[in-house]
Design brief:
single chain, CBS-domain, 3-stranded mixed beta sheet, 7 helices, 7 strands, 40% helix, Diverse_CBS-Domain, CBS_dom_sf
Length: 139
């Protein structure tokens, strides 16, 4: 059985909620990623911050990324998957919530992220086509 841990990109890092968006952008550049999970002071998942969130939700709104925190950008119920979940559970979670990145948790700790690129490497063409159709469907 292929699990979330098998297909994830390891080494994901939390972005503390108190960090500013300019620092988040620097971390993304250093790590060569487009998203970071946001954690509260107890290292509990609050959401995911994307590079697009910084641009559209902060900069384009005329806000200062040096004065806006990641926690201010965390909206909605964060989604995640246990490291032992099988690939079908991963796909269901991502499809049902139309999300493109999914944090992987093991023993209450972040251990990795599953992204579109990870799915592309591990899914069959029909599985990937179904995922794309369901995640990118509008309506």
């Amino acid at each position: 059985m292929t699990t979330a841990k098998d297909i994830m990109h390891p080494g994901a890092q939390w972005l503390p909620a108190h960090e500013t968006l300019d620092r988040a952008a620097q971390m993304m550049r250093e790590m060569n990623v487009g998203a970071l999970p946001i954690a509260d002071s107890n290292e509990r998942l609050m959401g995911i911050l994307t590079d697009r969130d910084i641009v559209v939700g902060c900069v384009a709104m005329g806000h200062d990324p040096a004065q806006t925190t990641a926690g201010e950008m965390a909206h909605g119920t964060p989604r995640w998957i246990d490291s032992s979940a099988d690939i079908e559970e991963v796909l269901r979670e991502m499809q049902s919530h139309q999300i493109r990145r999914l944090p992987v948790i093991e023993k209450k700790r972040l251990i990795g992220m599953i992204s579109e690129a990870d799915l592309a490497r591990h899914l069959s063409e029909p599985q990937l086509a179904t995922w794309v159709e369901k995640v990118y469907a509008h309506g």
